[in-house]
């Protein structure tokens, strides 16, 4: 059938694993089934933990302890330890929430969306990207929980049968958030775990020692590696990918509704859903690179996460960054075109008000600097790409901050105009959440297969009919 | 209308020592008749048996433990009434009429009492000084009653004593003095307007003929007294009836928003302003030396330095052909036009001099009013209110001299705080230290009490009997609402009584004895009961007297001698400093600057620019050889080359709220320059000292927040308000409209009437248990006032026009806040209220984000005080006390609405118009706020909403607010073009 031939043809062409002259190969030369399994398993099972891991984990743990202290103090004293006020009642916490959730979207896009699009290059990076998503969602979830004035009754936002016979207000975007984020988390965990089962089976088989064998054995869920299992596995992954793909668009759309449903000028804007989704993918890929590049260097994964991956991630970042640049242009235009005084003032306030530094910083970090990604040399070299990714991550955080705070600090009634000043605890909680992420991610790197061995094997010609002897 | 019951208060005073806080039963003396029910738990018997039995018993006991809770209940005795006190229904408050003597003059009030403790002060509708409204100070004095830092014990040299030991010591100390006919014995009081207290003092002086009675109030009508002496040759009291005044000229008088009689003046002024459906407005000219709330209300305002105000007054007098007044001619353009306007309304104008202006200005005003024929019509002269009017500065000067010369052996200081606020050149404190025995009788243990040998705590006026006079002389009997909280307190009446006759009587007996002599009625008992019940003594207003002023205006002021001028005024809310520990008043924002918890050094924008000072620059102010340190505040509308500082701050022994708040101005205030002086220098300081303001932006930013016009503009285009409003059509909605049958609560706020006195803000705080957050939290933008008055400036920053906009919750029919609350903590009721359910709120604060007017307040910390016993007593039991993490906002006083609905339902009738008054509406002196059911077109609020001036703020947002405004009008003199 024409389609399947074309597919095989394409796979052969993109695989090209054995051609040492192709720098854009998806898998490095000399990779076989055995080397893949050995390379990844040894990281977890046999090789000594590199010092890099210890330093990073230690740093992350320190920040995580800061986070624990911040949250404890917050719960003990009250939300007032942050710099929030009336009118700026949301600041760092919601910024952090949107930033973290946005970061997670790249993982799902890589895992699910690119799987459905049959992009082979996603096969090696999707595991740690999906892990990144899960941990980012966990970090994100901390903030809507702890920013509540009475966090201990957060569960009233859930529609559970209760003696008060009270239901949440389904018209409120915050309730939609709950559904969106919880489904996102659930699907991501499921997808990640089920996709990992064959690799956990590999670990179980290769592990030495009762404890390790038992640990991975339980997690492997009875994987035998039979073709029946493989068939079920492939179907399951496809189905989950199908469910997860709409989430790439829907979750951050729902998060953007937190703002668009409000009547505030600067928030009440129909461009927010695509704007936020694009921004999410933008920051997500930046994080994938920020995580992937060091891992690649430290653990010697150059043959699995190749220049091709860096190039593709860079291209996706550029594309989404350009969409963001379009949004930054269209918003002032729409405000001017609307003739609405409040909207026009908000745009003016963004550019020239007390937090104008955030606006111009966003333009610099999200639009100007990432234009470097037009150049192949930047997209395929580690240091420039890492630098641009960090810049994008920072820029995206500042952009969320700008959206939230500049709309709140000067809204309709001039008498309530104010200035927002962050406190020490705002910063401690934010950096602490980064610590939480680092701790979780480092634990993942240490104990789980960060590259999906089974899926990388699919890229090798040996997995194709004919054994890849054809060119 | 409140139920004015008179019954059980007398029982408080019968027999012996008043005790600390009594239970209602003890009030009635019925405690021995109560039945006590003991409530205790039974333990669970355990007798060792088989394992099965053990387990079943354990299961049973754990189940019971689960049912009853984790801990053993404490034993509590509940005591139902067997014979309840008459007319006491727990949960239903009672109302008692009394009078509030605040700042040297009284206002009739009705105090709401919940189970024997006063919780709210309202105005007395029958009282001529109040007409049902109150001033800020009458409202806030409740916090003085419950001040936890009040004096509680009799103190001798720092150690507590009791009354008996004081009486003992006193008899020993006074014996040698008595043998000398009282030489060496002096009494220092504040201004005495209480007839009974005056009589007591006369009795003391009769017993000790050589003793001296001094009076001193640091603020107060010193200039008015001096002027009356100058032009009438005798003391004369002046007050104004502005209801018939077509033109009012204020010479540095903030008569609408604060000061003596402001409640009545504001009421009369706004009644006249709204005359003829606002087509016959009065006109207000304000010539002042700083920016005040009255100045912001002016139709024409001129900012002049303090001495220039006097020059202006002289020129105006010359233009009105008053005596031989003459001026420099610098203000001719204003003066000629004003004079023409005044002369066109002879007998219907009033020229009001500011209390702190010079005696010359007062004298000129008296003469001008006489020349304009205002006397007897809008300006009323009577005999003085004070029992013994005198020059108080001289009085204190003599006392200080006597003390420093060692001539004073026994000094009795009744009230006041002269150590803190005496003029600096008197050296009062050093003199006081030379006095062998000094007694300070005051409600607070303040700076003066630290320096006197004895301190006797005085009961607050809400705790004891007394009497007083108000603006027009109407006398009132002050009746207590609660037995004195601190058993050792003795009123000034009692202390004096003990000196005259030993043992002394109770205040009740003293006041009764005085009035049974004075009233001259046959049936004294009925007269007494009626007077106490009504809150005023009928026909006790002082009759107007006819006096003619001579034209003695004193020498004109010397032309502005070198250097910047300083003006020292009593603070709008702290007054002379006596309210420093009143945290409501500390947190109440200054009307024009919205500053809290601090005073500032006010400078005009030009002067600040010249001196290169930023706003809030911390500076040292040097005046003659003395200096104070404070922060600069740039005040639009302040005259150039002048600085104004407020008295009443910088106390060091007032209590937890007042200590360290602001800077003390009294050290630079000398008797020769009580209110003003020149030669001020500044020095920048490095350490910053931020000031906490509740409104950072005072510009309307070209938005139609306050829709305004001149009277002429209104006459030409009556629909200007609707045209500016941009209200969307009523059917612009996707959803079917809700049909509000039954009551539809709504509110209308008249911006022409609002004078920014902020009595409504304090009333709301008292009624709804609103927390005080402190300076740091106000700096963090977390002030909790549900109702606020926004002050906007417009025009040239040096000569701005000011606009006042009270902002309560708009109670929108399409409320943006209700949409976004995730847990339905805010809903809409069927009578149109936006309900806030504190129990359900989890604190996401989305509702606040979505409110265009930011009327919602959030409890970022536990702002409410849960520990201080006396503050618990003030709380209104009908309103929840909110805890940490919940949102709160104005509810249209829903507790009052529901109470009225229940009463009306019980009586099977409709709620009458005016039956429900929200707290803000009830105390507003100008009746700017009107609340009611808008579904009934006969109601006042419905009629106001039908007016052409009615508009909703930001109506284009389509939230359909129930709170709407009446656009503001100013009546400009057509002869002034753009002045």
Strand content of chain A: under 5%
Strand sequence of the main sheet of chain B, in spatial order? 7-6-18-17-16-8-9
Q: Give the number of DSSP strands of chain B.
A: 40
Distance between the termini of chain B: 46 Å
Overall 3D shape of chain B: globular
> Which oligomerization state do the chains in this entry correspond to?
heterodimer
Backbone CA Rg of chain A: 23 Å
CATH class of the largest domain in chain B: Alpha Beta
**Major β-sheet of chain B, in short?**
7 strands, mixed
Question: What's the average pLDDT of chain A?
Answer: 92
Strand content of chain B: 15-25%
Catalogue the unreliable spans of chain B: 1-51, 57-70
Which structural category fits the helices and strands of chain A? mainly alpha
Main sheet summary of chain A: none
Summary of the model, kept short:
Chain A is mainly α and 471 residues long. Chain A has helices at 2-15, 33-45, 51-77, 92-116, 122-146, 173-206, 210-220, 227-260, 272-299, 307-338, 341-352, 356-368, 376-380, 382-409, 424-447, 453-459. Chain A is built from 16 helices and no strands.
């Amino acid at each position: 059938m024409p389609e399947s031939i074309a597919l095989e043809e394409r796979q052969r062409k993109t695989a090209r694993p054995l051609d040492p002259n192709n720098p854009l190969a998806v898998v490095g030369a000399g990779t076989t089934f055995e080397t893949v399994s050995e390379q990844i398993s040894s990281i977890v099972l046999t090789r000594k933990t590199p010092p890099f891991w210890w330093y990073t984990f230690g740093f992350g743990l320190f920040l995580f302890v800061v986070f624990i202290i911040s949250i404890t103090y917050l719960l003990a004293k009250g939300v007032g330890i942050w710099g929030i006020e009336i009118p700026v009642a949301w600041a760092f916490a919601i910024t952090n929430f949107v930033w973290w959730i946005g970061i997670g979207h790249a993982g799902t896009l890589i895992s699910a969306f690119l799987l459905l699009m049959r992009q082979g290059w996603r096969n090696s990076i999707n595991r740690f990207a999906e892990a990144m998503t899960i941990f980012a969602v966990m970090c994100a979830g901390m903030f809507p929980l702890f920013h509540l004035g009475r966090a201990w009754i957060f569960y009233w936002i859930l529609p559970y049968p209760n003696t008060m016979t009270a239901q949440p207000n389904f018209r409120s975007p915050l309730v939609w958030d709950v559904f969106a984020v919880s489904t996102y988390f659930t699907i991501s965990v499921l997808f990640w775990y089920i996709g990992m089962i064959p690799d956990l089976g590999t670990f179980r088989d290769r592990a030495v020692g009762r404890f390790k064998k038992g640990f991975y054995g339980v997690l492997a869920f009875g994987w035998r590696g039979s073709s029946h299992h493989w068939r079920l596995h492939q179907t399951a992954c496809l189905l989950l990918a199908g469910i997860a793909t709409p989430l790439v668009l829907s979750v951050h759309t729902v998060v953007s509704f937190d703002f668009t449903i409000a009547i505030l000028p600067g928030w009440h804007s129909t461009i927010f859903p695509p704007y936020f989704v694009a921004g999410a993918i933008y920051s997500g890929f930046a994080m994938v690179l920020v995580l992937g590049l060091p891992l690649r260097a430290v653990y010697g994964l150059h043959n699995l996460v190749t220049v091709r991956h860096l190039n593709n991630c860079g291209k996706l970042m550029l594309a989404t960054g350009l969409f963001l640049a379009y949004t930054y242009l269209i918003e002032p235009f729409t405000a001017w075109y609307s003739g609405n005084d409040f909207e026009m003032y908000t745009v003016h306030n963004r550019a020239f008000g007390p937090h104008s530094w955030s606006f111009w910083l966003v333009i610099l970090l999200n639009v100007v600097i990432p234009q470097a990604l037009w150049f192949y040399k930047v997209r395929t070299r580690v240091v420039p790409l890492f630098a641009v990714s960090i810049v994008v991550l920072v820029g995206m955080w500042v952009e969320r901050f700008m959206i939230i705070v500049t709309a709140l600090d000067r809204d309709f009634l001039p008498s309530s105009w104010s200035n927002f000043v962050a406190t020490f605890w705002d910063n401690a909680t934010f950096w602490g959440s980064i610590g939480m992420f680092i701790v979780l991610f480092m634990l993942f790197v240490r104990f789980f297969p960060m590259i999906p061995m089974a899926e990388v094997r699919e890229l090798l010609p040996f997995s194709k009919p004919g054994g890849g002897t054809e060119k | 209308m409140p139920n004015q019951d008179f019954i059980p208060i007398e029982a408080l005073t019968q027999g012996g020592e008043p005790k600390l806080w009594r239970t209602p039963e003890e009030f009635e003396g019925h405690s021995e008749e109560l039945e006590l029910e003991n409530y205790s738990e039974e333990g669970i018997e355990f007798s060792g048996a088989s394992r099965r039995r053990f387990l079943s018993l354990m299961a049973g006991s754990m189940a019971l433990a689960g049912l009853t809770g984790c801990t053993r209940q404490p034993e509590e005795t509940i005591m139902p009434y067997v014979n309840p006190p008459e007319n006491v229904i727990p949960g239903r408050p009672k109302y008692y009429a009394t009078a509030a003597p605040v700042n040297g003059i009284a206002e009739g009030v009705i105090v709401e009492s919940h189970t024997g403790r006063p919780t709210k002060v309202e105005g007395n509708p029958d009282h001529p000084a109040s007409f049902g409204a109150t001033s800020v100070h009458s409202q806030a004095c409740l916090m003085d009653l419950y001040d936890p830092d009040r004096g509680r014990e009799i103190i001798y040299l720092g150690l507590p004593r009791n009354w008996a030991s004081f009486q003992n010591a006193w008899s020993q100390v006074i014996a040698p003095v008595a043998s000398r006919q009282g030489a060496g014995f002096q009494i220092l009081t504040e201004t005495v307007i209480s007839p009974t207290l005056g009589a007591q003092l006369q009795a003391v002086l009769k017993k000790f003929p050589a003793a001296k009675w001094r009076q001193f109030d640091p603020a107060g009508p010193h200039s008015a007294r001096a002027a009356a002496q100058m032009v009438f040759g005798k003391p004369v009291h002046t007050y104004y009836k502005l209801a018939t005044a077509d033109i009012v000229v204020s010479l540095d008088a903030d008569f609408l928003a604060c000061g003596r009689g402001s409640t009545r003046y504001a009421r009369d002024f706004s009644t006249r302003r709204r005359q003829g459906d606002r087509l016959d407005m009065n006109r207000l000219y304000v010539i002042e030396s700083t920016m005040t709330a009255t100045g912001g209300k002016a139709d024409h305002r001129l900012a002049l330095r303090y001495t220039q105000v006097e020059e202006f007054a002289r020129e105006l007098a010359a233009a009105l052909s008053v005596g031989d007044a003459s001026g420099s001619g610098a203000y001719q353009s204003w003066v000629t036009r004003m004079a023409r306007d005044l002369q066109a309304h002879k007998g219907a104008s009033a020229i009001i001099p500011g209390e702190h202006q010079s005696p010359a200005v007062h004298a000129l005003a008296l003469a001008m009013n006489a020349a304009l024929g205002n006397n007897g019509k809008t300006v009323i002269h009577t005999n003085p209110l004070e029992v013994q009017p005198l020059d108080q500065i001289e009085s204190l000067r003599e006392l200080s001299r006597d003390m420093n010369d060692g001539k004073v052996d026994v000094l009795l200081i009744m009230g006041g705080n002269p150590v803190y606020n005496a003029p600096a050149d008197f050296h009062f404190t050093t003199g006081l230290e030379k006095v062998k025995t000094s007694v300070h009788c005051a409600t607070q243990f303040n700076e003066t009490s630290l320096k006197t040998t004895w301190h006797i705590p005085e009961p607050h006026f809400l705790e004891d009997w007394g009497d007083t006079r108000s603006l027009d002389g109407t006398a009132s009997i002050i009746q207590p609402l609660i037995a004195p909280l601190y058993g050792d307190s003795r009123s000034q009446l009692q202390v004096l009584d003990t000196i005259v006759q030993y043992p002394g009587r109770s205040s009740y007996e003293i006041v009764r004895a005085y009035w049974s002599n004075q009233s001259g009625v046959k049936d004294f008992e009925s007269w007494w009961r009626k007077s106490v019940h009504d809150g005023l003594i009928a026909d006790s207003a002082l009759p107007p007297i006819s006096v003619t002023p001579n034209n003695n205006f004193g020498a004109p002021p010397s032309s502005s001698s070198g250097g910047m001028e300083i003006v020292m005024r009593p603070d709008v809310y702290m007054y002379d400093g006596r309210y420093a520990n009143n945290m409501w008043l500390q947190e109440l924002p200054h009307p024009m600057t919205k500053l809290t918890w601090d005073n500032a050094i006010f400078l005009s924008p030009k002067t600040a620019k010249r001196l290169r000072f930023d706003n809030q620059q911390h500076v040292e102010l040097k005046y003659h050889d003395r200096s104070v340190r404070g922060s600069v505040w740039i005040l639009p509308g302040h005259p150039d080359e002048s600085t104004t500082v407020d008295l009443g701050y910088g106390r060091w022994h007032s209590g937890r709220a007042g200590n360290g708040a602001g800077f003390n101005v009294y050290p630079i205030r000398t008797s020769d320059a009580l209110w003003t002086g020149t030669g001020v220098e500044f020095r920048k300081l490095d350490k910053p000292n931020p000031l906490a303001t509740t409104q950072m932006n005072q510009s309307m930013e070209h938005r139609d927040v306050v829709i305004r016009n001149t009277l002429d503009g209104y006459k030409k285009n009556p629909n200007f308000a609707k045209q500016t409003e941009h209200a969307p059509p009523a059917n612009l909605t996707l959803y079917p409209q809700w049909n509000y049958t039954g009551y539809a609560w709504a509110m209308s706020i008249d911006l022409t009437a609002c004078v920014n006195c902020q009595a409504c803000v304090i009333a709301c705080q008292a009624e709804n248990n609103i927390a005080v957050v402190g300076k740091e939290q106000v700096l963090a933008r977390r002030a909790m006032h549900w109702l606020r008055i926004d002050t906007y400036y417009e025009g040239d920053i040096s000569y701005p026009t000011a606009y006042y906009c009270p902002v309560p919750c708009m109670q929108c029919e399409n409320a943006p806040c209700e949409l976004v609350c995730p847990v339905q903590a805010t809903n809409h009721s069927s009578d149109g209220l936006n309900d806030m359910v504190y129990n359900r709120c989890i604190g996401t604060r989305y509702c606040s984000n979505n409110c265009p007017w930011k009327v919602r307040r959030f409890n970022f910390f536990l702002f409410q005080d849960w520990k201080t016993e006396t503050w618990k007593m003030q709380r209104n039991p009908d309103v929840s006390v909110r805890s940490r993490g919940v949102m709160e906002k104005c509810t249209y006083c829903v507790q009052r609405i529901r109470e009225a609905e229940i009463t009306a339902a019980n009586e099977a009738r409709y709620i009458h118009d005016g039956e429900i008054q929200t707290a803000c509406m009830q105390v507003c002196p100008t009746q700017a706020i009107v609340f009611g059911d808008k579904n009934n077109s006969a109601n006042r609020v419905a009629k106001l909403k039908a007016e052409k001036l009615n508009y909703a703020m930001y109506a284009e947002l389509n939230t359909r607010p129930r709170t709407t405004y009446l656009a503001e009008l100013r009546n400009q003199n057509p002869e002034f073009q753009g002045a």
